[in-house]
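Possible regression after last week's pipeline update?

I re-ran a chain I had predicted before the update to compare outputs. Posting the input and the new output here so someone can diff against the archived version. Not blocking, just want to make sure nothing changed silently.
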Amino acid sequence: MRTMIGENNSSEKSRLFHDIGVIDFVIVEMNEYLDTHPTDKEAIEYLSHYVHMKNQAMREYAAKYGPLRISDVNGCRQNEWKWALQPWPWEGGC
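New output (post-update):
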């Protein structure tokens, strides 16, 4: 049973990390679109929605697994400096 919990935790972590990447892709694309269509109010609302989604997902990730960016350090519940203790992406951390 212990292995299944760890696998579920790893699966959830991977899913959340993947979702953050997908949301970030949408944000970058919308940013580029708005560079050429700066008055498109619907696109601005769409971008705002996805920025909110990303911030929420980043806070959730930080609370569960440690921060992905330094600005999310305050959202961590642990009493240790997880930023330095978690594996780096090249070490398989993400």
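Follow-up from reviewer: compared with the archived run. The longest helix spans residues 2-36. Marking as no regression found.
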